[in-house]
Design goal:
alpha/beta, FAD/NAD(P)-binding domain, five-stranded parallel β-sheet
Length: 308
């Protein structure tokens, strides 16, 4: 039986595993994607001490750090179920194994939101993508579209600047919600980018792949205008939803969206169960790598105190 099981191989999970390992706890960390969502990030320039690092490179650095601890076992795979019976945590994986732990840190992260646009599902993988960094290179010298107004949308546009011929940025309101001033300045000054405000994509069209989209815009006088625009690729960057489907049987408190409620010590509503990273609410609204790592450290420290 492990002192601590960590579910999630992103920054929060790896940080928890590193701290727990240094506390001489026996640790098992399980996850399906090394680095989590950051592995899909083109360039990270706000990580202290490592400027201009790619998401995959930082993911590997974090993973390699965890691997150095002999008391930290790393398992890549998918978790199917998590249960707590009496004082024991049971974690089942897709290979049929059941792992037992005295405590657990849930660092499952989030998944990209879907936009519920007509044709979106039909053209997923055929011109519709939820990962700009993964698929941008398929659209060299082509017309592309990014849907969203937050930081992830801006990063997507920024990544496309040296690849695509033209980029439409579709935002629902009259201003961007992003707070990354550097990205905003680059995008606002680039003639490749056309920002279409107060607008929604209502339909994605094509035969075997994306060929165009219908954009509905509400003008300043309230008139509704619809136009069809040619586009070769559509990147949907509208935020994320928590990976909380595994947690329904645990009985821990979550908000209406499925984010795990925690306190300043990363405690959930059940003793021995802790949470860290983007899947949580109550610790910080700032969804950044360094915050997730701090939460992982706090969660591991709280678990150590619980086991004393």
């Amino acid at each position: 039986m492990y002192d601590l099981i960590v579910v999630g191989l992103g920054p929060a999970g790896i940080s928890a595993a590193i701290y727990a390992s240094r506390y001489n706890m026996s640790v098992l960390i399980i996850g399906s994607q090394i680095g989590g969502m950051i592995s899909l990030t083109h360039l990270i320039d706000n990580y202290p001490g490592i400027p201009e690092v790619t998401g995959p490179d930082l993911s590997q650095k974090l993973f390699d750090h965890a691997k150095k601890f002999k008391n930290c076992e790393i398992k890549t795979g998918t978790v199917n179920a998590i249960q707590k019976i009496n004082d024991i945590i049971y974690v089942s994986t897709e290979d049929g194994q059941i792992h037992e732990g005295k405590s657990i840190v849930l660092a499952l992260g989030t998944d990209k939101k879907k936009a519920d646009i007509k044709g979106e599902k039909d053209f997923t993988g055929k011109g519709v993508s939820y990962c700009t960094i993964c698929d941008a290179m398929f659209y060299k010298n082509k017309i592309t579209t990014v849907i969203g107004s937050g930081n992830s949308a801006l990063k997507g546009v920024n990544h496309l600047l040296n690849i695509a011929e033209k980029i439409y940025l579709i935002i629902r309101k009259d201003s961007l919600s992003a707070n990354d001033e550097a990205d905003m300045q680059i995008i606002n000054n680039n003639p490749k980018v056309e920002i279409i405000k107060n607008s929604n994509v209502t339909e994605i069209k094509g035969i075997n792949k994306v060929e165009s989209m219908v954009v509905k815009t509400i003008s300043e006088d309230g008139a509704v205008l619809e136009k069809e625009l040619k586009t070769d690729g559509i990147f949907i960057e509208i935020g994320a939803v928590p990976y909380s489907v595994l947690l329904k049987g645990l009985g821990i408190d979550m908000d209406a969206q499925g984010f795990i409620k925690i306190d300043q010590h990363c405690k959930t509503s059940i003793d021995g169960i802790y949470a860290a990273g983007d899947i949580t609410t109550g610790f910080s609204d700032l969804k950044q790598i360094i915050v997730a790592e701090a939460m992982g450290a706090v969660a591991a420290t709280t678990a150590k105190k619980y086991l004393k």
